[in-house]
Amino acid sequence: MYKETANLAVATLYDSFFKELKLKLSAENLEIVKGLIEDKMASILGIINNITIDSTVSNKIDEISKQTEMITYDYDNKIRQILGETDYENYKILEDTERERTVTIKFEQYLSQTNQQLDTQIESNLIQALYEGKKELVINDAQLPDFSKQDPGLEQEFINNTLNNLALVHEDYLKKAKDILSPAQFEQFENYLQKERTDKKTMLQMYIATLRMANQK
Q1: Is it the case that residue 118 has pLDDT exceeding 90?
Q2: Which of 16, 118, 173, 197 is the Cys-Cys partner for 122 at CB 3.0 to 4.6 Å?
Q3: Residue 69 sits in which domain range?
Q4: pLDDT of residue 199 exceeding 80
Q5: pLDDT, tens digit (0-9, with 9 covering 90-100), for 22-39
Q6: Which among 39, 176, 21 has a CA at the least distance from the CA of 104?
Q7: 152 and 55, same structural domain?
């Protein structure tokens, strides 16, 4: 499951990067790099899920951070050996902007429903502005509760805190996007972010229901 998710995300987010690497790497090494990036993302997704449902882990955020750091170090060393320093640095820049590029790509898909589109420069400016905003914004992660206790109050508190944090991020996105997007595009960006928060709430509720079932077994 994680592999399929990672494959799709990597293909979307790193397509232009892979096209550039075709001119520099052998076909074999290019496939190795793709596989490493996909496996790295899938491993991190697996870590997040496994620790979330593990009732023996008290501080889940710290444990996720610790294990993610170890996975990242291992895979990044392998990727660097194949790419070399320059292309490795380019890869890390792309990785740092994954979230902002994902938001922009999904917004463009949403925008296309209204027969509007972003030109390349606006797309680039938006990604950079959202990324700069992320570096400035300080938000405390919502603490993961012990789902084995099946406490509806703690579960709802986690959902509320997660959505509140997302609302703060989106508020910052709108501030950064206001001078980049046209009025019509900005209005659609607001609508898109509202949809993202609604979808996130539904996803969290489904996720917690799944965790409850897993802990009942």
Answers
A1: yes
A2: 118
A3: 1-96
A4: yes
A5: 889 999 999 999 999 999
A6: 176
A7: no
At residue 58 the predicted structure's pLDDT band, cuts being 50, 70 and 90, is low
Are residue 47 and residue 104 in the same domain, yes or no?
no
State the CB neighbour count (10 A cutoff) for residue 214. 13
Q: Which two tokens stand for residue 116?
A: 């509007």
Instruction: List C-alpha distances in Å: 107 to 35, 116, 188, 193.
Output: 27, 11, 8, 8
How far separated are the first and last CA of the chain, in Å rounded? 21
Q: How far apart are CA 44 and CA 37, in angstroms?
A: 11
Count Cβ atoms below 10 Å from residue 136 Cβ, excluding itself.
8
Q: Per the structure, how many domains does the chain have?
A: 2
Q: pTM, whole model, 2 decimals? A: 0.81
Distance CA 79, CA 91 (A): 9
Query: What would the pLDDT profile of 171-189 be if each residue is shown by its tens digit?
Result: 999 999 999 999 999 999 9
